[in-house]
Specification:
mainly alpha, 2 strands, 58% helix
Length: 199
């Protein structure tokens, strides 16, 4: 099993102390709100931290965790892909519980997202707006964050499914192969590796 180092928060170097203090203040306040289950407020404070330090991976992750907690699944799935593509090394980071929705809330989220994949007769209305592939990726991410390999496998299986008649795009194929390597220790197959350049 690939185990990431738990991360509470980080304070990257800033151009001046005032900027760094503003970023740190927003990040710590957002983490506190997240721990209290005030997910919408936490999302707003993480977004403020991103204004000070655009693209900061810790703030990006905190924002997507807040969006998950508040049921903003579509936004969370978009931000998860943004985080994984912009900072692929963060795929191997496990956040401390204070930087995630509560265990009970994560269980509810997984249940709702599973309803989206299974075509439940009463699926979560918001979850219906997300493509199965993105639902699977979010489930797999939650599985990794909670050290639940079975959930990672379940989520990646859903993420790999394509709409009938459609082919898997090569960018997603490579991303999923990379994530399985990081999250599950699986080696990618030949078809998942980038094509060799023509000589």
């Amino acid at each position: 099993e690939t185990s990431g180092k738990p991360v509470e928060y980080a304070t990257p170097a800033a151009d001046d102390a005032a900027t760094q203090n503003l970023y740190t203040r927003d990040l710590l306040a957002a983490q506190k709100l997240l721990g209290e289950g005030r997910y919408f407020d936490a999302e707003a404070r993480f977004s403020r931290a991103l204004i000070v330090r655009p693209g900061d991976p810790v703030a990006l992750a905190g924002r997507l965790h807040s969006q998950l907690g508040s049921g903003m699944y579509l936004s969370a799935s978009v931000n998860l892909r943004q985080l994984l593509f912009s900072t692929p090394e963060f795929a191997g980071v496990r956040f401390v519980p204070a930087m995630l929705p509560s265990k009970e809330r994560l269980d509810q989220i997984v249940s709702r997202l599973r309803g989206r994949i299974s075509g439940s007769s009463e699926p979560d209305a918001i979850a219906q707006s997300i493509a199965d592939r993105d639902v699977g990726l979010v489930i797999a991410y939650i599985g990794y964050q909670t050290s639940d390999n079975a959930l990672v496998i379940e989520g990646m299986a859903a993420a790999d499914k394509s709409p009938e008649g459609a082919s898997v795009d090569p960018i997603s194929l490579r991303l999923h192969a990379y994530l399985r390597a990081v999250w599950l220790g699986e080696m990618p197959s030949a078809k998942e590796l980038p094509a060799a350049p023509d000589k």
